[in-house]
Amino acid sequence: MKLLTNTTLKAALLVLLTIAATASVRAQDARIQTSQLDALAAKASETVDVNIDESLMQMTARFLSSKDPDEAKVKALVNGLKGIYVKSFEFESEGQYSAADLESIRVQLRGSAWSKVVNINSKKEGSIEVYLMHVAGNINGLAVLAFEPKEIMVVNIVGPVDLEKLSDLEGNFGVPVLGIEYPRAKRKN
Questions:
Q1: Could you give the maximum distance between any two Cα atoms of the chain, in Å?
Q2: What is the pTM of this model?
Q3: Is the Cβ–Cβ distance between 149 and 157 less than 8 Å?
Q4: Which helix (DSSP H) or strand (DSSP E) does residue 100 occupy?
Q5: 65-80 CB burial, b ≥16 within 10 A, e <16
Q6: Strand partners, 134
Q7: Dihedrals phi, psi of 166, to nearest 5 degrees
Q8: How far apart are CA 169 and CA 153, in angstroms?
Q9: Which residues pair with 114 in a beta bridge?
Q10: Angle between helices 69-78 and 54-61 (to 10 degrees)
């Protein structure tokens, strides 16, 4: 009987450790879920939905020329990325989305791995929030939440992000030109 109880305890411990490890991996995933915003599409005059996973990104990057300096920069930047996801809604009039819609995204970015690094608020021009996911001293994800009275945009880049090269990605793979000055990484001399 003692052997059966000991084996049962070991099995239960193994199951708990497996569940904890799986939860930890999911908690460290830089992909944010935006499906809760899909209901806004019916109200929007224009929508953008870009979903480029790792395999599609690598396939697309193969068609970029290493000889063209701009394409070579983008090709180097996407190397190692796991995905680029953009969701945007433009509305004809104000009041088509609520603070609760934005909160559904922010709640995901309050995890211990995420840090808000940029917060710009303007009553005239809207607001931009930039979040970075730090894991073991590396940046493994970026999320941008930009909104105006008639527009919402969520950009999510999953994978290792080089802040010094990030602006090269704007205007490519569905990532809009945001014009944000990202903080520069400290270089070791």
A1: 73
A2: 0.71
A3: no
A4: helix 99-106
A5: eeeeeeeebbbebbee
A6: 139
A7: -60, -40
A8: 16
A9: 133
A10: 160
